[in-house]
Amino acid sequence: MAWRRRVESGEAVKTLADAGVTVISSTHGRGILADSHRASLRAFHNSPSVEALISQCDFTLVAGSRLRSNETRSWTLELPTPRVQIDIDPAAASRNYLMDNTLVADCRALLAALAERVQGRIWGDARWDSQLKEAVEAAEQGLRDQCGDYAKLNDAIAQALPDDGILVRDITVSGSLWGSRLFRAHGPLMNIHSLAGAIGMGLPMAVGTAIANPQRKVVGLVGDGGLSLNLGELATLAQEKANVTLLIMNDGGYGVMRGIQDKYFGGRQYYNELHTPDFSLLAQAMGLQAWSVDRAEDFQAVMTEALAMPGPSVVEVKMGQIGALRFAGPPQKTLY
Fold it and tell me: Residues of the signal sequence (predicted)?
């Protein structure tokens, strides 16, 4: 279905969730139901505790999602039956999962009609709510353990960024771990990334997002590899005076390729090292305020200062000094 119509379905989704319907979102659909809602499983679809909870459900309604491979372990995630899909495109019917029924419809209109029918009804109970809360807490803790010190960076940004602030993520290790699922989502279009797997779009997307939302602070999350494809856009950031704090996660190469080679190729490492500039000095040469961080203890102070400053700025995180963040791509049944 048209993605915009899914985004506009938030009120109807909340009505269904208030009635006790459990909701889990794709990473790109986060915030359609706020993370804080008691019925939200957020985007923890690949977490064992959440999978165990999903297996107890009686029915699956897929609203506007294509159930992508990287969010379903290459389509091996068990989704309860019967399954019903809502999509405006007839060609999407049972494309990635076999459906018992596909409703070719506008997602916003159909969910609104469904929400009207459930007014006054309550499903679920305190026991289910408790199980859901425990599943989400276990999933979040597992992700925090995986992220290590970088969970502190997530928390520092969440504390310093205004409630209406926007996170724009490149395809990068940090974006795929804490950025995609750990960072808060109060509403739709507040945690944005490219649906394709190509790196390099983070900075241009962050600048565009800031220009379209001049009263809101934007954090652009990029890696050194992705930024290297669009270094010249630092000049655009400065010239447009975009209200962006660019967060550069510098691990000196292609971190995901290191993870893949460790996991699938016995640790043989090839062609993943990068020669990159001193990003802080480069930013300063462009006339941008810049910070460099090489200790996790400094995350809070630096992010608080950077995000309090209007206009463009750059924070470079030197991951070599802080520690590696291991990631071998989305959970898969098999890869190679």
Answer: none
- The CA distance from 180 to 23, in Å, is 17
C-alpha–C-alpha distance, residues 38 and 325, integer Å: 30
Number of H helices, E strands in the chain: 14, 9
Q: Please, are residues 207 and 242 in contact by the beta-carbon 8 Å criterion?
A: yes
pLDDT given for residue 1 in this prediction: 32
Q: In whole angstroms, what is the distance from residue 106 CA to residue 2 CA?
A: 8
In a domain, 229, yes or no: yes
Residues of the chain with pLDDT under 70: 1-7, 328-336
Answer yes or no: pTM beyond 0.70. Answer: yes
Look up residue 1 and give its two tokens: 């279905």
For residues 207 and 318, membership in a common domain is answered with yes
Q: Give the phi and the psi of residue 276 in degrees, each rounded to 5.
A: -125, 160
| Res 270: pLDDT | 84
Domain that holds residue 233: 148-322
For the chain, what is the domain count? 2
The amino acid occupying position 27 is T
DSSP E strands, the chain: 60-63, 83-87, 101-104, 166-169, 191-193, 218-223, 244-250, 289-293, 313-318
Kindly state the tokens that stand for 197.
Answer: 């797997």
CATH code at 91? Answer: 3.40.50.1220
310 occurs within a structural domain: yes
Of the CA atoms within 13 Å of residue 303, those in its CB half-sphere come to 26
d(CA 150, CA 139): 16
Query: N- to C-terminal Cα distance for the chain?
Result: 32
In degrees to the nearest 10, what's the CA dihedral of 72, 73, 79, 85?
A: 30
Fill in the amino acid letter for 327.
F
Residue in this structure with the two tokens 């960076």, named with its chain if needed: 153
Residue 334 lies in a domain: no
